[in-house]
Amino acid sequence: MKIDGLVKLTNKTYPVCLPSDGLRDKIIPGEKDATVTGWGDTTFGGVNSKVLQEVTVPIVPLKDCNASYYEVARGNFPKGITNVFICAGLPEGGKDACQGDSGGPLTTKLKGNSWVQLGVVSFGYGCAQPGYPGVYTRLSQYTKVVLR
Q1: Which of 87, 102, 105, 131 matches a 20 to 30 Å C-alpha distance to 142?
Q2: Is the full-model pTM beyond 0.85?
């Protein structure tokens, strides 16, 4: 993606890095949190927020994510939730992306003050349901395509 002109950087506007191929191995589920932002619904079936929302959730191992979604998603994902996805959420629920947040960023802070976008909001079971982490398209799988 290219834009015409320069972007003015402020304390509210700054770039996010794209993930490298090797980053996936450095993001250890359970040891790294990620932040999701969006203007989507604040409750399942609710209305879109007029204020940008932000929530921080832990990265969840794919095996745990697959165990959570086995019954509800196996028809859509017969091979399970594969490594083209990344999952994030609290076991007890309560924090998640929701309808209207799809396409939004899942980011994490690296050393220093740089941020990297790990994923793109994809789907979940309801919103912030206990036992069902949010599922995000893993951006590192598509970085080369984005850079073309």
Answers
A1: 131
A2: yes
